[in-house]
Amino acid sequence: MSHHSTLLMRGPRRNRLMAAVLIPVVFASLVVVLLQATSKPAAAATYTLTKAAYRDKTLAGILGQIGGVLTGYEYLSPNPVSAAMESTCFQVAGGPYSGDAPAACWTPNGYPGYDRLGAPNFASNEVGSDDDYHVDFLDELILDQYGPSLSYQDIKDAWTYHNVGDWGPGDIANSLMRNEGLLPPLTGQAEYDRHYWLTEPYIENDTVGMAAPGMPATARDLTGTFASVTGEFDSVIWAKFLGTMYSMAYTATDVRAVLADASVVLPRNSWPYLVYKKANALHDQYPTDWRAAQGQLLAYVRNVYGQDNVQAIPDRNNGATILAILYGNNDYLTSLKIASLIGNDADCTASAVAGLFGVVKGMAGTPQEFKDKIYQSGAGRYINDLVTGYPPNIGNDYPTAQSFDDIVSLYQANAEDQIVANGGAVNTNDYTIVTQTVLPEKVVQVNNADFEQGTLSGWSTWTPSGTAPSGNAYAANDTTTSQSGAWKGTVVTDATTTQVKLFATLRGLTAGATYRVSAFLETDQFARLYLDNYGGAARYASVVDTDAEHNRLWAERTIEFTAVNSTADVGLWMPPGAAGASSIDNLTVTQIVKPTTTRYEAEAATRSSIAGGGAQSSASASGGQYVGGIDDGGFLQFTVTAPAAGQYRAAINYANATTDTAKMDLIVNNVNVAAAPFPRTEAWGTFSANLLSVPVSLRAGSNTIKLKLTADTGYVEFDYLDVSTYPQPAYAAESANLITNPGFESDPATQAPSAWTTWPGTAGTDADADYTETGGSFGAMRGTHYKASTYEVYTSQVVTGLANGTYTLTADVVGNGGQIAAFMSAKNYGASVPELTASIPSLGYPNWRRVVISGIVVTNNQVQVGFYSNSPGGRFISFDDVQLSIQ
Known about the structure:
The chain is of the alpha+beta class and about 900 residues long. The chain has 19 helices and 39 strands. Helix content is about 25%, strand content about 30%.
């Protein structure tokens, strides 16, 4: 039987999706019972969720998702809707997508797809498909068909069979799967999907969290899997955040608490985390004026390369979601109003907000208009729109119409699978769910990792003759070509400077721990993400002429390594070659759980149609040999062993010195499952960390993985195949902030803030040069250095009673430049240790930036942290939200 036949026939749940029989929903409140362990070893904590409560909340969440779309104003001008028009424009389920928006608020664009509710496109009890929920519902079908441990292969099979219609990244991902044979998550990566940055990864997958009620760690991971089909970078982070919130909402009574609890999912080295912080700070700054907060947020968020509509940037819209929840004060209609009128992609914002409120409040708290216009006492229908030409639809073998009760049943079946798979139980009237704790990723914070400080602060340079001249390495201010934000790090080679490195030194690594280093690169020649000085052999991953090959400019590269030293150098390396320029942006470093890996050498694999036998020698190859000379129709086949059935990662080390990406068929156990793309590398016979990683579904025991070259698809040389478990981030409880009065909020404006001391400079005359004032980055207050005349001052705090270990110091800072010296510092943390510093950016107020000092190795149970200025008169720096935590 073919896999597609299996897809159509698997299990009885398919009938639940297709059935026209209505299943009544009992409206009930959530019952939560916490059970405490009474003996050792401790039993897992559990809670009880009634089946009636699950159905009630899930139905309310679905109605909120759809109702939010029917209420919110997308891409509106003015942005947001003015206060004077608020009462006119905010109509529950009466916005542009309902077809009933007031003429004073919305000018129809003539496209029939905007009218999703009732006539003229649908019957009076029908709502048409939209990208805010059509893939959400498909996700549930896929989970139902393949079970809780589904693979990327399963998702590809489902998308290609059903032929998903979508906007932007989904449309491209579907084409990549159907026409080019690519597997997710490649289909969502910038290298292949130019719309990877867009909203679809999170708006189309957030309700996956409703299939994992009260299991936020499961929801985070599952949502991330689905989201990576159509995107990467920030959009996938936001998807995990929203999916986690939907899961947490089943055990909550206040959406604001859900927002705060789910924020741990946002990596502390990510821009989404800074947006979350900024939105909270703006709420504190403008406690009753969400429009003022939104105006400041729009000035804060950053561009993303390739954006074709600034109003669709995920940071803008998820920041708006946070503001709507904060200012709504747990009132459904207030938050829905703000989300609907706040501007940008507001139908999506309103959808996420209303869906969350639906799960928290249940049907009893759902707006009556949603019940009357969408649910209609169970008579309402969801329509997979294959008629109007509106792209969001499922093209093949998907129900034309579904009741909302049937959709709830599909979510419920998947939730039951997840509950059981995660150690819980399905009882007669309720569920016993094992409690999960969501922890933040363990990240290594890198100062100025995105170059948004406007300088190369935190970075070093190297050329064969020493430090790179300023014209050969610099922070480039280019809002149109930076991968995100306004800045990128750039290196240039020429006749004099034939190679350049631009690198950051990671500090405080744990020997024996494994890390993933990633960055986006672009080049008109050759560029490498490289790793060195970590205690092992130097490694690199290449990109070649990204603009010419991809017309997408940026490609992400990744290197995984196990640390031997406590430090390592990572960054951009432009090797010898033709003169040119390369750039790097958004370096991230995450600790991962070291995957269990088995290596299979290419020279030991079965091979066919290989010129000269194929095995060749190279000092850079693993074991000294590799395989080349594969002709059209030739293949390389590995026999691999899997300890258990499931999804594994196949990482293939290769070289491709052709002029384009080469493709080979990926054949697993004699089934052609996908195309494997091999982007260009620098030279034949040269190997380092140029790895193509693809997911493979293996059975327990012996398997075959074959790479076969078909005509006109380029040529590849192979070093080895590593088969491993899929690497996961390492998680750990967030360390407490050890700074006292970190935001200078303990006092009104003062010359002597609590817990901080002043050194008045060498002359002893500048005690008046530091003080606190309003206008903080996160709260009301900030620390400031300023004086009309020349001054020198140091504001510091000695943190005592520390456990010896490695710490990270961060702070929000801003300044106007012109100082002789201005920096954050850490010192006196051991005998004969250097003072560690991070320069203060000079971008002007209110352009706050986060600065980092990592790897502070405390050996004397204390550290002195502070801010130093040596400055002419009239220059200032400010600092806020100072955090010291164990690394």
